[in-house]
Amino acid sequence: MKDELKDHLEEQFLFEFDAEITEDTDLFKAGILDSFGYISLMAHIEERYGVQFEEDELLGNVMVSLNGIAAFVEGARERALESR
Prior knowledge:
Layout: H1 2-13, H2 35-49, H3 55-60, H4 66-82
């Protein structure tokens, strides 16, 4: 899942993870993501992984790095499985 997210980010936002932009880099501060890009990324995650975001999750828990995004998605998927 993390590799797919990494590929998606690189393809959609036209950059590559490397020594400067790592999996822990704040993608907003690095100028890669903006609010529109973030919403697009959340839509991709919802569609691809079946994760539904509540409004407070989108606004209050902004995921800014690849590692943060992957951890959030994994946690959301686990919570969804537990609630079934």
